[in-house]
Input
Amino acid sequence: MVLGSHLSLSASMDRNGTAVASACPAPHCTVAGSQAASLREVSGAVLVSGLVQLVLGVSGVSGWAAQRCGPMVLAPSLSIIGLSTYKEAAFFCSTNWGIALLLMLLAVTFSQHLGSCRLPFCACPQAQRGSIEPSVPTLRMFSVLLPFASVCIVCAILSHLHVPWESLDLAMAQLSWANSTFHAPWLRIPYAGEWGWPLLTPQALAVGIAMAIGCSMNSVGCYVLCGRLLRAPRLPPHACNRGLCTEGLGSLLAGLLGTPGGTAASIANACAIGFTQTGSRFSVQISALACVVLGTSPRLAGLLTRIPLAIHGGVLCITYAVAVGTGISYFQYADIDSGRNIFIVGFAMFMALLVPRWLGAAPAHLATGWVPLDLLFLSLLMVPVFLTGFLSFFMENTVSGTLEERGLLSDLSLRKAGPGSRRPCGERDEASQVYGLPAGLRRLLPSSCKVFPCCFLCPGSEEEEEESSRAPEEGTAAPGEGTQLLPRPGSGELQPPRRPSEMEMSTWHTEA
Output
């Protein structure tokens, strides 16, 4: 958006020499050739952002930074991610607050009040034992989809009855008419260079770097948020690196195809998992396949533009509220009564809301004399999550404080244990199951994960050694029972506990 405003033909120069975009008074005031050139430059910025994200993932920088983000960094960052979208949510809901409130009421009812309701017809019979598996909480699982479908049906009925229920301004009405799908083809395969090859300029380079930094911080926060909502183990570095590499590859492809936006993790999707409590890779693969189908069918993709804005606003309100609450929940791990922590949280969140507001009202105040540098600073300082993450990360790692204040005692115990130490078997297996590579990739990449391009993307070799060297007597136990291994005196080995004799038992009872 920042780059597009500087590329507008109708931009004017103020007295400080900074380009300020002005609104186009009519839909035909922009020349088609200049629009194509602007789109090519924006695609170049998307291409640069993909390259930067790919480098951050392959080099392991993102995983290294994520491991050093404690509760005092995650709490304000996740909270500001949700709070920073209140303007957009209010704008969408203002088209019809009744529709937005109806969707929010249904979502809250299904997910919170009726979250434990189990429908008997949803029980699945088991062929092996002949019994019936307990039904799942259906209303909670579909607490986002059912309200969305119900409100869409209500809007369609109102439109069919010619009831004026949506208040749109002239610009949004023209956008809705332009996105009509009556004459769009059913199938159209996009290809690289269709709209011209990406144009790499200093402005596109600066904005692309800012896009990569902002998207990477937002995506890492989304990974942590998703794991927190599903009560999964802590995010390991290799999983974070793989996620950013995948997003970088997606942005590279998007830039080559000429799209004005790259790929990034969706906060709304992660927060929807908090409502449904259903997280699986299969659901992600199904949604990815659906997006590919929509991308190759302009007529089907155009149906998404017919969704009323009030529904978008209601979904934003219920999903981003989960992000705010999840961020606040991280304060329980740190000493929030500490003056150090109070200042870090308050200062980071206040500046994250203040600086974008000031720059949005008067962007001409930021003028260094070189337009690419202005675009870089403006693109970064207009993103609240960047300001919150940077300020909290800087002060958390520079201001002195005890480990108890910072909420890092559990992390320190894991680091002192070292890579070769024995962690609990259940915790290790759960982390490997959640964040490990799929079975197909494990078979295809057994040895290449140890070389540089992939060494930061796969689980560490120490985890594989732990799994291969697990002894039968140490890891076998009945379900619900522990092995209760004790260290042998004078050695670092483990041995099972010795059962006391009858004489020792009688002596203990006499002393008691």
Q: What stands out?
A: Residues 9-32, 413-422, 464-497, 504-512 have pLDDT under 50 and may be disordered.
